[in-house]
Amino acid sequence: xxxxxxxxxxxxxxxxxxxxxxxRLRWRHLFxxxxxxxxxxxxxAVAFFALGDEPVGAGFVNVLRKEVAALIDASVPENSLAFLxxxxxxxxxxxxxxxxxxxxxxxxxxxxxxxxRVGPFALVKSAxxxxxKLQGRHGLDGMAAMRIDRLGRLxxxxxxxxxAGPIANVLAVPCVWLFFVSQALDKWQHSVGKFLLFWAxxxxxxxxxxxxxxxxxxxxxxDGARLLSLVRSGAKARRWLxxxxxxxxxxxxxxxxxxxxxxxxxxxxxxxxxxxxxxxFWFAYVAHLxxxxxxxxxxxxxxxLERFRIASPEFQKLILMEAAIFQAWYREDEEKAKIxxxxxxxxxxxxxxxxxxxxxxxxxxxxxxxxxTSAWEEGRKQVECLPASPKKDSMRESWLExxxxxxxxxxxxxSIPRLSQSIG
Length: 424
Prior knowledge:
- With 424 residues, the chain is mainly alpha-helical.
- It folds into three domains: 201 residues, no CATH class; 78 residues, no CATH class; 111 residues, no CATH class.
- 66% of the residues lie in helices and 6% in strands.
- The chain has a four-stranded antiparallel beta sheet with strand order 3-2-1-4.
- α12 packs parallel to α14 and α14 packs antiparallel against α15.
- The protein starts with 26 loop residues before the first helix and ends with a helix.
């Protein structure tokens, strides 16, 4: 009689199912792409024909018609090259103005800058100040991240913060129009005028596309989706507000086990393939782990692994390391821990403290206790070197607790052979 083994409740974590990777283009994404293209064509048509009948905009639109027609004339190689150069240059300018507008508006309403990225170029705030990074795995898009330190009028402030990006792009059109009306073009090379015309037209397309409420393939929401959720005040808005509140608590040094449970419940209410859901399940994972609720923690780590493909490269590294740590420390499965660790250690290195956490757990599962103790002590020194803050105090507390757990688990391990010998 064969014995049937029940399927694992965490198949990805237990290596029974593969990690989800970026797959083929789905019908939904194809529909969105076609819709974006259609809206772009319609917006150009409006600019060329509808506005051309207006006396004020007639001269500007006529020039725009001629220049764009010349740019897209593929029979002339120089124009094809110009189109590519203009497109890349205008796209970077549009993205930069869009993301900087988010940052400026965020600062006005009391948010604190964390990072801004335009294409592969990122500016990140760290304990040592602003740091420039080149992130080659990102495409031609942008992102701004800011943190909150209070919940007062948060919905209203978020609305201002989100709306600032599209507004900045809309302002490109009157700015270019004023440039032509003032006849400043006579003082510049004609190619500058071409570029500005292309920039204005592309800005209109980008604004319209960005205001369509949908979730992108990378799991991020458009500004239109964010604004719509704030207006509707539904579950997605509660999830977003709860995530911001949880991050505020975490940044203030609140231990994961003390994070407000109501916010965790609201943040995990929607299990879609969005980065909001990914962040929500991560908060739930670390909270359950800190409370000693390991089954619940494993379930939430599994949900993070299910959304692995939409995580940023840095977050993917963290998820892989955590899978190895969980298998080594909590399940004491050395073979599975090694497989996860090999994936986690591939590519750029993670944070030094997380690398030490992984090393401690791998030493532990292999019964290399002296090496584990040495790595723990090195981690303690790193924690002590951090700038003074409530978050540092929380990390020190949990790190010292971990040493107690290491000693206790070692004693439990070593007491089993002694008990067997005494019985024998």
